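Batch job 17 of 40 flagged for manual review because the log was empty.
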Amino acid sequence: MAQIIVEDSENLEKAIKRFKRMVEKEGIIREYKKREYYEKPSTIRNRKNKTLQRKLMKKTRRTRDAKNAY
């Protein structure tokens, strides 16, 4: 849970910016959007497999390009 302590002399706008940064860093908004609607387990599994395949393709492309550069 994101929580900040605001000092008496601190500007309110600056405190809000700090709070927003902390919420973004902890991924609270992203987690909320992900859980906003029910997602079937098969859909979750398919999405994870697709992202894994994309990462592997990117990695193989990088290594292939690195070999061709020499």
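Reviewer: the log was empty due to a logging misconfiguration, but the result itself is present. The longest helix spans residues 41-69. Unflagging and moving on to job 18.
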